[in-house]
Amino acid sequence: VANRRLLLGIDIGGTKVALALGDADGGLLSASRHEAEVARGPDHMLARIVDEAHRLLGAAEGKLEAIGISCGGALDRRRGLVLNPPNLPGWDSVPVVAHLSGALQAPASLDNDANLAALGEHRFGAGRPFANLVYVTVSTGIGGGIISEGKLVRGLSDSAGELGHQTLDPQGPPCGCGNRGCLEALSSGGAIAREARRAVEESPDEGAALLALASGKPDRLAAWMVAQAAAAGDALAAALWHRAMEYLGLGIANVVSILAPQAVIIGGGMIAAGELLLAPVRSAVRSRVRLVPAEEVAILPAALGPDSALRGALALALELA
Amino acid sequence: VANRRLLLGIDIGGTKVALALGDADGGLLSASRHEAEVARGPDHMLARIVDEAHRLLGAAEGKLEAIGISCGGALDRRRGLVLNPPNLPGWDSVPVVAHLSGALQAPASLDNDANLAALGEHRFGAGRPFANLVYVTVSTGIGGGIISEGKLVRGLSDSAGELGHQTLDPQGPPCGCGNRGCLEALSSGGAIAREARRAVEESPDEGAALLALASGKPDRLAAWMVAQAAAAGDALAAALWHRAMEYLGLGIANVVSILAPQAVIIGGGMIAAGELLLAPVRSAVRSRVRLVPAEEVAILPAALGPDSALRGALALALELA
How far is C-alpha B96 from the chain's CA centre? Predict the structure, then answer.
């Protein structure tokens, strides 16, 4: 199979970089993952990616047909530039597409991680049965991607899908984006950790269970600890979790009213909470959404775990090949 | 031009029925409008529509190629049925498409009025320059339609675009849909009139200017009176109007964050308020939307006035022809 057609997907993150080699249909042949080492700068990272790609390609035999690249933060998709993502300090208009396309001798394309996670779940994951879906990532932040009739809805400057920045409480807490009361500022992992810290500092007694999970250090509190303590019956954790999930349900219900998708696929680190997250979201959609047949909207966990965007990068390569 | 190809658009409403005859490109040749006379039932209305269509066709010369039909409320687009819209009492699964297609000897298709208003503005109105837009109708209720890459986003059961039913205040006033705190329950003409009635009954002195516009009868208060009194400097009216427009801006900002459209086109009766409505919406979008380039989103009044859906029905006929 020396002339087999191969595709390469690359997911550039602030902590890890992942590569996946796929066959001509985007099916997964092999993958690798390594530390991002962002402190060493973009040249180092790109050289390491090229090395890893050669290693995967050398073991596979075949011809590389196309490369799909996923990256978070601000991109210029048309020019193939990574602009200046918050998780890649020191990167400023890095020509990732030109560099990797040149070094690996194949056409390449770039898109943001939330869009590619949506595409990955649509092509290879929980979204396969659905031509119209919304992917929501609930992690430190909240983002999303929209698939309509099997295609990504990209919007102005490829910025569609910012459902984490709908305002749900006009006077709510400040959001990293500059607005107040965004869904992300109310329901993300970052928001839950922030509220948990505030609560245990205000009421150390009621916060004892949470503090114990954080080894007594409020700074170490994370959203998963709140989920765990809530599941174990801790009242303060349950109240914090309940409030965040109520807003998450509200935000997802709003997206369902606006787009009437066949499915909402939820990924990101917080989906590890499973039913603790899914049940309140389903309940909010069923109770709040009246003019869209809410009972027909499937609300499902992502199937590809941390690889949604990586598999989406393969799907992007598939579009180029 | 006896063999000229003709298209027919029909807009069935609860108070008026409108017909438009178009050329093969959907360009407007002639139009008519008559009272809906809903009390006389669907058979009467359909017979009258057929008469009017024959009259328009008789004056035009040419061959009818296709018919597009707009109607509010619940429809079955695929089967061509008007189910049971609140503004057409007594209508229950009326086979409008089969009836008009048979009587006028041309293929026909049906869609809801908000979708067709979006399509009409996209093809013939303020939305012509934009492949990606959101149309918002602000009237007694609030509805919408979404155009992505030049096509209507229809969603489950053709129910996409219900942006008036995003929840903006979880404990807010009850909405006609069964939820609470929907955009429609906070910012529609119906909501503004309701709040104005409550306010003048609670504070007749502060409400004197509004009451005068309603001939002293709170029941006659309408949203346009609130806009007019607010523009004239009345404090109570200005407070009511300001609050409603703040939520309208919030709801439209949310849609912009989710879809990043090139344009938001605002139609419906309340757009008669002009800048009094547009300015606060533009301001909310500019201040709330941070991750989409909000300054590039055109926020425009509809160009076709009450005919957005009628022209959209012609655009629908164009797709069939």
Answer: 20
Residue tagged 């040749």 (tokens): B29
For B19, the enclosing helix (H) or strand (E) is: strand B16-22
Nearest to B148 by CA among A90, A151, A19, A319: A151
> Do B279 and B230 touch, CB atoms closer than 8 A?
no
Helix (H) or strand (E) holding B5: strand B5-12
Other residues' Cβ atoms within 10 Å of the Cβ of residue B31:
18
Query: B287 — contact with chain A (CB < 8 Å)?
Result: yes
* Chain A touched by B129 (CB under 8 Å): no
Q: What burial letters (b/e) apply to A30-41, b meaning 16+ CB within 10 Å?
A: ebeeeebebeee
Backbone phi, then psi, for B18, in 5-degree steps? -125, 145
- Residue A177, chain B, CB below 8 Å: the answer is yes
Among B40, B41, B44, B22, residue whose Cα is nearest residue B31: B22
pLDDT tens for each residue of B163-203: 999 999 999 999 999 999 999 999 999 999 999 999 999 99
- Contact list, A297 vs chain B (CB under 8 Å): 156
pTM of the full predicted structure? 0.95
DSSP bridge partners of A17: A12, A34
Measure the CA–CA gap between B318 and B84, rounded to whole angstroms. 27
* Residue-wise pLDDT tens digits, B94-108: 999 999 999 999 999
Q: Does A280 touch chain B (CB under 8 A)?
A: no
Give the ipTM of the model, two decimals please.
0.95
Measured CA to CA, the distance from residue A258 to residue A291 in angstroms comes to 10
Q: Is B262 helix (H, G, I), strand (E, B) or coil?
A: coil
> Which among B177, B262, B290 has CB closest to A165?
B290
Chain B residues with CB under 8 Å of A258 CB are 144, 146, 160-163, 166, 255, 258-259
A9, A22 in Cβ contact below 8 A?
Answer: yes
Q: Is A186 exposed, middle or buried (0-12, 13-18, 19+ CB in 10 A)?
A: buried
CA-nearest of B122, B46, B121, B51 to B80 is B46
Contact A179 B254 (CB under 8 A): no
